[in-house]
Design a protein that fits this description.
With 482 residues, this protein is of the alpha/beta class. The protein contains 13 helices and 19 strands. 53% of the residues are buried. The structure holds zinc ion. The site of zinc ion has 3 residues, from loops. Involved in peptidolytic degradation of cyclic heptapeptide hepatotoxin microcystin (MC).
Length: 482
């Protein structure tokens, strides 16, 4: 018998402090054959399975998703889901930290809508980013859950395969798993919970021991997402299991130990306000110094259009810095108009968020990069001793190729500035040293000072003086089943 399994989802992370709403063009959308042919989903090749591609929409983190954008994706996804019936299973590849303008718990809305289409019997599996925020509403729709176990995320595929394999397991063996979760009132930035550093490293290294317990399929620790001021923000343990008591014990143990360690999570690299970090960079005798402009990191939801580090470097007459990059479409267009080799007056910064600082400069256009579509354009400019890569659209510069493409070898640069939190797996090994600047922006790392009107109280570190005992809750689907 061939199993019919549908695949789809929506995947992004949204800072509610960003005024820049996500639009359809911000998403990479996979549909039909394109989804199955994508490298991202290339593990969907099980024998005896009819893989039914729905819609998968994915965007670089940013501001909230515009309501009309979300509703259009959801409507298309549900229509394809309806058309794919009858089904044996549904796999959802989610991030978990999406915020939709004017809506709380967007993933809860999406997954509940999917459940309403497929009915109460069908197993649904979801994979999540460990920075996703989970709710009872989400858990109540699911039978299987798996989250990343690394940050920086180098186990994306493994996580998707874990969720997918559990779905195949229930469909082929008849074993019926359920999901238990235990929220922890702690919200820490990803930069303090990197699995490259302790104590997160050990926490995640222990999860496979939980998996090995009788009756447990998959144990997870979710850090959650702190830069969305919404009620659901929380860390939690989430366990997929066939044994309810074992699931409860594992979820409560993971949750309680995370709570107990809450004060131990610190930034990995040397971390300080911008001016202090620049002092260190000036004195450094090694290279490349890689400075993370943490408040404006697009992969954490930052806008990516701020020029504060550029401004500070120019004020110091810093020689030999490369900034990769600043999103500024008007500046890129102006460079294209002026042409390579020309010198022009430019305003850099604040092109998307009026609150982002900008700087007026005289820039020389070093090179232009035109891969034929305007949003993909980039321009490299030189301003005194600083080289800046300007991008027409929001994007990270976290890979070596993002620089070598422009003839810049990151390893030889005196100071490389990237809009990043913890460094990417490609940049981290060459940083000599890595410094993190506590810059301003919509994902400011000084989380105790960010807007906090709608998060649940108490929640560490917004509140500090309270007690907590972890208590697991089951998916209502599991309670209802004998
Ligand atoms: Zn993440």
């Amino acid at each position: 018998m061939t199993l019919r399994i549908a695949v789809g989802g929506i995947h992004t992370e949204c800072s509610t402090s960003s005024p820049v709403l996500m639009q359809p063009e911000d998403f990479r959308v996979l549909r039909g054959r394109e989804l199955l042919n994508a490298d991202y989903f290339s593990f969907l090749n099980a024998d005896g399975v009819d893989h039914l591609p729905l819609l998968h929409a994915r965007a670089v983190p940013g501001g909230p998703v515009a309501r009309h954008t979300y509703e259009a994706f959801k409507a298309e996804f549900l229509e394809l889901l309806r058309a794919s019936l009858p089904l044996d299973g549904l796999y959802l590849a989610m991030h978990g930290a999406m915020n939709v303008d004017g809506m709380d718990d967007a993933e809860g809305d999406w997954i509940s809508a999917a459940r309403a289409v497929v009915g109460p019997e069908l197993p649904i599996a979801a994979s999540y980013d460990l920075h996703g925020n989970v709710t009872q509403k989400i858990i109540d729709q699911l039978d299987i859950f798996a989250g990343y176990r690394t940050a920086p995320h180098i186990d994306v595929r493994e996580t998707m395969v874990r969720a997918w394999s559990m779905l195949i397991r229930t469909l082929t063996t008849g074993e019926k798993p359920g999901v238990a979760w235990a929220p922890v009132p702690v919200l820490l930035p990803g930069e303090r919970t990197s699995t490259e550093d302790e104590p997160a490293k050990s926490f995640y290294a222990r999860l496979p021991d939980h998996d090995a317990a009788e009756g447990i399929w998959d144990a997870n620790l979710m850090v959650g997402y702190v830069w969305a001021d919404e009620p659901r923000g929380t860390a939690c343990a989430v366990v997929t299991a066939t044994d309810k008591a074992a699931a409860k014990a594992a979820a409560e143990s993971i949750a309680q130990s995370y709570w107990q360690a809450r004060q131990d999570f610190q930034f990995g690299p040397v971390t300080a306000p911008l001016e202090e970090v620049l002092e260190l960079a000036e004195k450094a005798e090694t290279k490349p110094v890689i400075l993370a402009d943490s408040g404006d990191n697009p992969t954490g939801g930052g806008v990516g259009d701020r020029a504060d580090v550029l401004k500070a470097l120019l004020a110091r007459n810093f020689e030999g810095a490369v900034i990769g990059g600043i999103t500024d479409r008007p500046a890129v267009e102006a460079c294209f108009k002026a042409g390579a080799g020309s010198t022009l007056r430019l305003t850099i910064g604040g092109s998307l968020d009026p609150a982002s600082p900008s700087v007026e400069v005289e820039a020389q256009v070093v090179s232009l990069d035109d891969p034929s579509s305007e949003p993909e354009r980039q321009a490299v400019v030189k301003i005194a001793g600083v080289t800046v890569i300007l991008a027409a659209r929001r994007r990270p510069y976290h890979n070596i190729a993002d620089f070598t493409r422009h003839g810049i070898d990151p390893a030889t640069v005196r100071l490389l500035v990237v809009k990043s939190g913890y460094l990417s797996p490609e940049l981290a090994p060459i940083a000599n040293p890595n410094l993190m600047a506590l810059t301003d922006g919509v994902i400011n790392q000084d989380i105790e000072r960010i807007s906090n009107k709608r998060r649940q109280r108490p929640c560490y570190p917004f509140q500090k003086d309270f007690e907590f005992t972890a208590e697991a809750r089951y998916s209502s689907r599991w309670i209802d089943r004998p």
